[in-house]
Design brief:
Largest sheet: 7 strands, mixed
CATH topology of the domain at 67-309: Aspartate Aminotransferase, domain 2
Strand content: 15-25%
Bound molecules: pyridoxal-5'-phosphate
Strand order of the largest sheet: 4-12-11-10-7-5-6
CATH class of the domain at 67-309: Alpha Beta
């Protein structure tokens, strides 16, 4: 059933949500969207919004991009799913595309960021066992990080608020302060197999690795024979104004995890590994029923093609710079962090939630993180005119004239 706009009112949707869904989301303020186009969404009352969150860095090429929609429609009418027991042409084509875009990494496809990280941890442990012997299982992560909600990814996540109530957590993880190279070096033991980092911590409020830190971590991994896993689930594919965030740092991770924007909203995650690391997985070691199916791969291929054809790496860099400059000149904003179109504005007052709600009421979707940060992760094909419109709504929502 495809629900036509207007068939259900917001109160109908809320009533059914409350009655039938497990309450894992707070969904406040209450709004439900019925239609999207580019960077615009329309709610159940027909009100228009400028979407500067993009499904939290998911809708890379805008809602219902005609090329992605056509690819989904065509693939859905041809073949949606077969088992991974058989060869899958769009999966092979997507892996080929990612191989070239990443400079030589092989792919395993799954369905989410957490699942991509689970696969990365398994691969790192297996690789260490095969190349360095028994007992090399420990993975070092950082405080403030976010790697997903499955048990291993949750354990890797460096924020206790997500972990409370779910103990015992998975063994074999430790956390060190972020952007502290000495702490990282001291945490390495004979049991360590890998370090996992986000090039820019997203969920902690948009905190980039310093160049010295990420480059130092890569050098430490080389020196000690560890794998560097970069969780690019939020920073991936043009978001930061480069195809991969690690390009800003000139480092080459051993494993990269992806998910959010790869399918422009159609669920797909990926684990990318250098061929010599990937070779540690043998048939039977890892699998996913849905991972890399026809529909998800067709959507991802079309998304990557749009990113290339519409020069969205360059656009994210150019429009992101413009946006950050506009934010920096705004009274009440103490600091602007980020790269490209992954941006966090730190307010001088702890009013992020209030400002977020005012923005939503005024037709701009943004996301408050904690008390004083708002994050912006709009589609990568927005224009400077969209930024001007967003700035007007943001300024009004902050109480500026
Ligand atoms: C850096 C990072 N890693 C992993 C995840 C988890 O991804 P998913 O929700 O698709 O499991 C997220 C989600 O926000 C993320 O930002």
């Amino acid at each position: 059933m495809v629900l036509s706009p207007g068939v259900m009112t917001l109160s109908d949707i809320i009533a059914k949500t409350d009655a039938y869904l497990i309450k894992t989301y707070s969904r406040s303020p209450a709004v439900a969207f019925v239609r999207g186009q580019g960077a615009r969404l329309w709610d159940t009352d027909g009100k228009e919004y400028l979407d500067f969150l993009g499904g939290i860095a998911v809708v890379a090429v805008g809602h219902c991009h005609p090329k992605v929609t056509a690819a989904i429609q065509q693939q859905a009418a041809t073949l949606v799913h077969t088992s991974n027991l058989y060869h899958i042409a769009p999966q092979a084509l997507l892996a080929e595309k990612l191989f070239h875009l990443s400079g030589g990494y092989q792919s395993f496809f799954c369905n989410s960021g957490a699942e991509a990280n689970e696969g990365a941890f398994k691969l790192a442990r297996k690789h260490a066992k095969l190349t360095r012997g028994e007992g090399k299982y420990e993975i070092i992560s950082t405080l403030g990080s976010f790697h997903g909600r499955t048990l291993m990814a949750l354990t890797a996540t460096g924020q206790t608020k997500y972990q409370q109530g779910f103990e015992p957590l998975a063994p074999g993880f430790k956390h060190v302060p972020f952007n502290d190279l000495d702490a990282l070096r001291h945490a390495v033991t004979e049991h360590t197999c890998a370090i996992i980092l986000e090039p820019i911590q997203g969920e902690s409020g948009i905190h980039p690795c310093t160049p010295e830190y990420l480059q130092g971590a890569a050098a430490l991994c080389r020196e000690k024979g560890l794998l560097l896993i970069l969780d690019e689930v939020q920073t991936e594919i043009a978001r930061t104004g480069k195809m991969w965030a690690h390009e800003h740092y000139g480092v080459q991770p051993d494993i990269i995890t992806l998910a959010k924007s790869l399918g422009n909203g159609v669920p797909i995650g990926a684990l990318l590994a250098k061929p010599e690391v990937a070779a540690s997985f043998q048939p039977g070691d890892h699998a996913s029923t849905f991972g890399g199916n026809f529909l998800a791969c067709a959507a991802a291929l079309a998304t990557l093609e749009v990113i290339e054809e519409e020069n969205l790496v360059e656009n994210a860099a150019k429009v992101g710079d413009y946006f950050m400059a506009r934010l920096r000149e705004t009274d009440g904003i103490a600091e602007v962090r980020g790269m490209g179109l992954m941006i966090g504005a730190q307010f001088t007052q702890p009013k992020a939630r209030e400002i977020q709600n005012a923005c939503i009421a005024n037709g701009l979707l943004v996301n408050a993180i904690g008390d004083s940060v708002i994050r912006f992760e709009p589609p990568l094909n927005i224009t400077t005119a969209d930024v001007d419109e967003a700035m007007e709504i943001l300024r009004k929502s902050m109480g500026h004239r």
